[in-house]
Amino acid sequence: MATRSSKLRAPVTKPVALALTALVAAAALIGGPVTMAYWNDATEQTPQQIESGLLSITAGITATYFDLASASDVASTVSAPSAQGLIPGKRGQKITYTLASGSGDAVQSRILGSISAPATSVWTEIYSKGYLAVNAETVGECTVNQTPGAPSWVIGNAPGQTLKPGESCKVTVTLSIPAVANISGKNVDVSRALLNLRGSASLNPLVDFAANATLAQVPRAEEN
Amino acid sequence: MRISFRTVPRTAIVAAAAVVTMIGIGLPASTTGAHLTIKAAVVHASSGVGTWCSVPNPAVASNVYKLSEFTEIQAPESTTDPRAGKTTVRMLVVPVVNDGSFEPVEPLAPHIGGVENQLGVRLWSCTPGMSATQSIKLTAWRGNYATTAASAFVWDAAPSATVPFARARLNTDALLAINGSTTNSTRPGVELRDAHRGINRLGGQSGANADPLTMRYSWMLTNGRTKNADFANDPFCASKTCRVDGGSGATNYNNVFSGVDTAAAANAVHRNSTTYLAEKYYSASGAWPTTTTTVQQLQCRSKLLWEDWRDNWYNSSTACPRSSTWTQYQSREIDVTVTADASPTATPTVVLPKGSSSVDSLLRDTTGTKVQYVVLEWWGAGTPPEDLEVEVFVK
Asked: What's the pLDDT tens digit per position in A105-135?
């Protein structure tokens, strides 16, 4: 018997340990989705990196100016521009948001986010009159769609598109003020129009874009 | 029944463990729909406009002309012999009518004054410390081309139903000398160029007649006006035999352009302009101005002969002849208007709305109230800054 018992004990211990491990793992995975609680809610600190152990996201931002002169078909009559800021017909700005999943993530994910600007009164008027050109485009595994008639966008994925661990979604918002804008078939000297719009007020800040995004795990069956 | 691992077959336990493991891994995402989510913090990026200085854009305002884009021509240098030496200048000759294409790009400053429909120029620049050796001269001329052949109007850009007058350019680049007087073959562009350059051969002055050039000239910007004295009057024209024409140009751009030396440092644009309104010395249609006075005129007539009233023909005394036995005289005084040549002061050069006038009739106007030919010229070494501009407007 003693011999038989020792023969039985050894093979039983291994599956039990395996089963217990699986249960613990299952419990760990079920814990979040069942309660729909985030593993870690939005943080207000930088760097913007949040980790759950199996899914993480980082959000970065860069802003650069670029020369409009070569792209403008109408010469600007602006001179003595300052080193910073948008200049009609002379200088635009690109703001790039990089939203990336962690390279150590265990799962693939989809992104859902937005970029929007709480309008100031001057901003609204400048945008609505067509004096400010704004557009957004993406690089990487995501799409961006503008809300019709508004300077805001929704970030998402195309069907079948996912973010694999370490992949990123880059959204670049380009802002520029043309030297001349064609409004209702009539050319407008924008640098002078801004003078009239400004009056005695300051045009700045022109816009403050806020971007946020959420990564959600893709069901295993939909990973690619 | 109590289940004991000891009684369960080993293969079953292994299978159960495998199932539980698979469920543990696959259940949240594929079976229950539960999944992981993670949210990034909100990130902000602000954008704003910079500061700059701006002048009107010729691509929008057709009545704004960049000095650097004036046409380069060879113009007579001598003021007496148009066939003598030539000199390089940059010039535009623009027919100005009140057709809407010469509206000011923005309202004039209140202190400018002037009258409605008055012709004027406004000089724009953002450049401080401009050339002190380049000169500029801007004049305006009443037309004298009622019978000029259509072929004599040679254009770089002709006004039409689709080309506004502000974008029209008379061609000035010809070696023809100015004629002794305007004929039907006179090329307006060349004549205006030479008149502007101070060549006074337009019929000349004869006796007590007024000078033909003075009877066509309007002062805009020549020597005598500066940004600090934009209301200054042209030299006083004391008598009918005087001559007032373009004179010499205004040297040193810093004296006539405002630059940015007084501009406020605020974002958006700065205002930088200096305005000069056109003034002339002739009456309407180019006549020498006159003055009228009312005097008392003594008149007499004979009562006996029932004559008509006559001015005091009898003698220069203030009394009619005394009545005699045979003649009896009556007297009376009436108001008489006396016209005399005036010593003119400058009066505004006004261009009235064109109404339904055709392009051709506007060009042939000789009253000076339908068209004014404006000559814009600069000369000197080098090239002016890109942002030096002249705006020609009808107020």
From this structure: 888 999 999 999 877 777 888 888 889 999 9
Of the candidates A38, A58, A61, the beta carbon closest to that of B45 is on A61
B214 and B81 in a single domain? The answer is yes
- Please report residues of A whose CB lies closer than 8 A to that of B27: 26, 29-30
Counted across chains A and B, CB pairs separated by less than 8 A come out at 273
Looking at the structure, do residues B177 and B91 belong to the same domain, yes or no? yes
The residue ranges of DSSP E strands in B102-239, in sequence order, are 119-124, 135-142, 155-157, 169-170, 217-221
The boundaries of the domain holding residue A2 are 1-37
B258/chain A closest Cα distance in angstroms? 15
Candidates A165, A169, A174; CA nearest to A157 is A169
Contact B262, B192 (CB under 8 A): no
Minimal CA separation from B57 to chain A, in Å:
6
Q: How many CA atoms lie within 13 A of B26 on its CB side?
A: 12
Backbone φ, ψ for residue A88 (5° rounding) = -55, 125
Which of A98, A111, A192, A214 best tests the B interface by mutation, with the highest count of B CBs <10 A?
A192
Phi and psi, residue B210, nearest 5° = -75, 155
All residues of chain B having their beta carbon less than 8 Å from the beta carbon of residue A200 are: none
Task: Please tell me whether the overall predicted TM-score, pTM, comes out greater than 0.90 for this model.
Answer: no
Contacting residues of A for B262, CB less than 8 Å apart? none
Q: Are residues A104 and A7 in the same domain?
A: no
* Three-class DSSP category at A2: helix
Domain holding B130, by residue range, is 64-286+344-394
Stretch (H or E) spanning A210: strand A207-217
Q: What angle do CA B116, B276, B161 make, to 5 degrees?
A: 60
Q: Which CATH number goes with the domain that contains A76?
A: 2.60.40
Statement to judge: residues B135 and B205 lie in one domain = yes
CB atoms within 10 A of CB B297: 14
- pLDDT tens track for B68-121: 999 999 888 776 666 677 888 999 999 999 999 999 998 898 888 899 999 999
